[in-house]
Each structure stands twice: as C-alpha cells, then as structure tokens.
Amino acid sequence: MITRRKTKEITVGNVKIGGDNKISVQSMTNVNPNDFETLKNQVAELKQAGCDIVRMAVADLKNVKAIAKLKELAAVDKNYDVPLVADIHFNYKLAIESAYAGIDKIRINPGNIGGDEKVKSVADVCMAKKIPIRIGVNGGSLEKSILEKYGSPIPEALAESALYNIKLLEKYDFTDIIVAIKSSDVDHMIKANLILSEMCEYPLHIGVTEAGTAHMGLLKNAVGIGSLLQRGIGDTIRVSLTADPVLEVYEGISILKALGLYDKSIDIISCPTCWRCKTNVIAAANEVEKKMILIEKNMKKNMKIKVAVMGCAVNGPGEAKEADIGISGGINEFLLFKHGEPAGKIPADKAVDILIEEVEKIVL
Ligand code: SF4
Q1: CB 262 within 8 Å of CB 253
Q2: Whose CA is nearest to atom 2 of ligand 1?
Q3: Is the whole model's pTM more than 0.85, yes or no?
Q4: pLDDT at 111
Q5: Which residues make beta-bridge pairs with 310?
C-alpha cells in the first residue's frame, strides 16, 4: 500500500490535483493550434484515451484564439470538455491573454518572463480568475546564477531553481501553484523531486522529459515516475514520448495501474511459461490483455481486479492465488480458477471467451 505525500489541493478546471485526489494523467497536443479542426480532433482523442488534462503550446495571439474556440465548443459538447493548459515561454502577455481566453492552467517560469512587474501582472490576473500556474523547471531553464553556482543542472540546482520560481510567485501572494522538475536524466529527475518534496507542499507534476521514442521513453518514464510514485511522491504525471500523444496517455495509465494507483483497473497476471506448459499461453495472454483494455474502458464503477493467464494447471492457480479469476493451460483444455481454487475445465478454443464473460460479470 502506497502512502501518498500530503500536498495542497489545486483546482484545474474540473480536475483537482494534489490532496487526496487521484493522480491525473496529462499529455500535450502536437498539432498547429491555428488548424482548429485538427486541434479539436486531437483534444477529443486525448480525452477519449483517458487524458485528464491537455496542454498546448501557445506561441502567439492566434493560438490564444484557439483556446477560446475550444472552450466554446466544450461548453456544448462534452467530448471536448477537458481542462486545458497553456504552455508559454518568456511572453507574459500570452499568459494574460490565455487567462482571459478561458485557459484552466498556465505553465510558465516566472523567472524568465522579464522581471517583477511582469510576474506580478500574470499572478494578479491568474489570482483574479482562479487559474493555477505550473512552474516548469528543467535543465535548460536554469537561472544563470544557479547554473554558475552548481556548474551543471544537478538535482540540487533543479530543486533550487524550482524554489526560486515558487518564491517569485509567493512574493505576490500567489500560492495556486503546481511544480514540475523534469530532466532527461532519470536519476536527476528522481533526486530533484525527492529534494523538492521535502521543501514544499505544492503538488508535483512528474515525468522524464525528452525521454525518447515509444520503447526507451516509456522505460525511462516508468522508472522515473514509478520510483517517485512508489514513494508517495507525484500528483499528476506526463509520460513524454517522441510518439503519438495518445500513446503517452495509455502509458501513463499503465504506470499508474502497475502501482495499483488507477481506479478502474484489470491487471493481467501471466506466467513466463516453462516446459510444463502444453498450450499456447503466450497467444492467450496477449488476446486477454487486448480484450481487457476494451472492457476497462467500459467499466462504470471504480474497481481493481486481477486476471491470470497461466501455463499449467499444476502450478498456475497456486502461483496466481492473488488473481480474482484466471485460466491455466492443460492439454487441449484450460482450467478456470477463482482465487486460486479450481472452478471447472473449459475447452482450449473457448477459454479466452469464457474468461472474458466471467470478467464482464464481475466488472460491468
Ligand atoms: Fe511453468 Fe506452470 Fe509456472 Fe507457467 S504456471 S511458469 S507453465 S510452472
């Protein structure tokens, strides 16, 4: 059982981050916001995949118009209704305009928007409109003085930069803050967040940045995000991948599921197979996994169950005792079992279908 770090609760549109709220999954659009048709389709796809919060780069005033249009659309069609974050670099005016256009959160680094007056302007507007600010620190955003002090973006430098940026906002009584320290170095990312988690109560957005393509990128994020979540650190996550943003959402959800932190989850337990296995359990496990993803999407209630696909009836049920239900391979047949106890023999060619029906009875 993971005990989560106590953090301040921050509201982003209709999603709450921190406190006792579930860990939210984020991703970011990668299409031109001025091509509204494409943008809205990607936002809907991300929401459909299970994305709780969608970020988009806002590089000019034209992009700000897309925020207003998305918000108008979301008001009449819930397929597009997902909290939006404006990702802004350097330009405080874009932050202010995004706030007026209805954005739900702003991602900006107070330290690089050009001085106190500008920080104050953004903080004042966000405070008036109850829009939180996510401070996003990474190796490339370190303040010159901090970089000079530490020589390179080591974890201590990243954490100090985050605290510096937090103070810039707190100076204007702005405390509606979420903090992200990211690095493409997994070890640095973990250590920097560990340091910061001891020093502030703001919710943390965690992820490995510039992590790479789908395979290695996922592994780096699973190690980085997973290590922190297992210690109870992290309130919202983004699995950054050089891939379709929808994949980022699926993988984020998978990381949460792997740690038992996702509300609706069918966890597959399957054995590695050995010489005792006399049937194609690898194919069966893959088929079960694919079908369970579809069932999971239709689950109405929050529930976590474990479903096993094991190689032999001799050891399978015992090895997968923690599974609520499962099948174990025999010769031309499978044994159905529940909580480690046999529940009948079923023909091999119908085993997966029968297992699916049984799972549907439990979760739908
Ligand atoms: Fe081998 Fe059976 Fe264990 Fe699978 S369940 S690894 S087939 S002993």
Answers
A1: yes
A2: 312
A3: yes
A4: 81
A5: 328
* 8 Å CB contact between 110 and 165: yes
Give helix then strand counts, H and E, for the chain.
Answer: 12, 15
d(CA 127, CA 105): 11
- Determine the average pLDDT of the residues in 326-338: 94
189 contacts: CB under 8 Å, gap ≥ 6: 181, 182, 183, 206, 207, 208, 209, 224
Query: How many residues does the structure list for the chain?
Result: 364
Strand partners for 342 = 337
Q: Tokens 């046999």, residue?
A: 342
Q: Which two tokens stand for residue 343?
A: 């529940």
For residue 313, the CA-to-ligand 1 centroid distance in Å is 8
pLDDT at residue 300, rounded to an integer: 86
Determine contact, residues 281/345, Cβ cutoff 8 Å.
no
277 lines ligand 1 (CB under 6 A): yes
Could you tell me if the CB of 272 is within 6 A of ligand 1?
A: yes
| Domains and their CATH numbers in the chain | 10-262 (3.20.20.20), 265-363 (3.30.413.10)
pLDDT in tens, 268-322: 999 999 999 999 999 999 999 999 999 998 898 999 999 999 999 889 989 899 9
> How many whole angstroms from 230 Cα to the centroid of ligand 1?
29
* Distance (Å, whole) CA 116 – CA 52: 32
For the chain, how are helix, strand and coil distributed in percent, rounded to 5? 45, 20, 35
Contact 84, 51 (CB under 8 A): no
Q: How far apart are CA 258 and CA 267, in angstroms?
A: 8
